[in-house]
Amino acid sequence: SQHGVALELGGEEILLVVTNVLTAPAEVRDGDRSAGSHTVTPLWRRGQRRAWKGASAVLLPSDPAPSSKLWSVVWHCIAVVLRVGSAKAALEGDPQGEGHPTAEPDWNLLSPQGTLLFLSLALFVFTRESHRCLPQLTQSHGVLMVTLKRLLSPGFLACLDGDPELVPAVVIQACQLLCFPFALDVDGDTLALVTEAVRDSQIPAQLLQVCSRHLPFSYTELPMSLLCHLVVSDKQVIDQMVREAAVSEHVIAFLTSALFSDSLTLTTDLLSLLTHVARACPEHLPFLQRILSGSDVADQPLTHLLGHQQPPIRAKTCNLLGNLLRHSHGFPQALQSQPGLLESLLGCLADREESVRKAASFAVGNAAYHPSFPAGTLGRAVPRLTRLLNDTQARTRCNVALALGNLGQRWAELGDLLIESRVPHVLLEVACRDPRETVREGALVALRALSQHPGIQQVLLSLRATEKLATLASGDLQPAAGGSPRPSSARHCEKLLRLLKHSVFPG
What we know:
mainly alpha; elongated; ATP binding; ATP-binding; ARM-type_fold; non-specific serine/threonine protein kinase; serine/threonine-protein kinase
């Protein structure tokens, strides 16, 4: 000490001292007792760097273990300075203060740069002790979450608009804190609690507003990546996002522009997000239509992206289109009027990248169900699909087999072409010889669909399909090693066999 007396303090005592320095006013008396006393503002409120050093000394020792008490005190102090709800509510963790109108932060107590410094400190602590910090992200009304919500709010960011570099820095660091659970090996229950807390804090809606109004385009990758993680984790996040977009043309304009961006990460994340919406929430197809329906040919996002130079974007666009075409009404019908869309999709069947061919074959198979797609254009897919039955990727071969079966829906226009292209021949060969069970099953499903037409039945009988299928079925009936269940292809094989036998001996 300053009087030369050695003091030995334990960790809890140091914690109390630092907490007191940060938060408690002190009464100071002059040497002359008759002069009275006056109160000195605590170090925190005076904005002294010593307060940060004191906090860092306890929060960040050589073997970091952030003290929950001091950690909470620091976050509460930040919440008060940033005017998170009412000061009393923020200090007491009262969620009722969260919805109250908030004033501009008191920059006399903590500058905007100081806010950024605090976020850097928080990121350091989270990086060193991620699993110990995670529980604070599971509480939607906890001080950490409501403070992050405040930092990402349009009202707070508007206070920083005078500094073009400060807004992106604050947003990125706040998003990095929220991204920690998705970057760690976290159990599903904890991840669900974090997602629920973020959702209940309305942060997904705020992320859309931040990206569309406050961030330069080049800084939107991380917020959109975070939003994508949230969307695929929780259907209610989708609902919240769609509601926000419904009342904001800025959001729709941003999302559409992002599809034309030069950022591979931004575009692929957005395509993944839109694909999940198409797959999981058909009631939100109008939302997708607003984004994906360009005003003229040059502004058609899907056609543009199918020809993108980056294979991941072409693949994800095919996957999005395939999921859109799973639905029979609404926007999928509008897709059929987009010039060049189907032709661009068929071109992806011959793409040099395996992932693109796989997704394109899935999309073409679903397009076959839509009668307003021109049969002549779909017919041009037949020779390409038959060649792809030899593709190296099993998933692609399975998609192709199912797509050829779906084309039987257009039998009146395409039946002769399917027979001339030897589709029954190659599907039977795949059903009997492909090394992958899923591919054999896909071929059998396709043959069953096509065999509803007498022309296909005659071709299969001429190929001695009943004998080949009987051999295949007998092999599937043998007990599997280790007592494994009977393959699902066996059921399709038996039903196809009965159908063909019935065509020879009706009744």
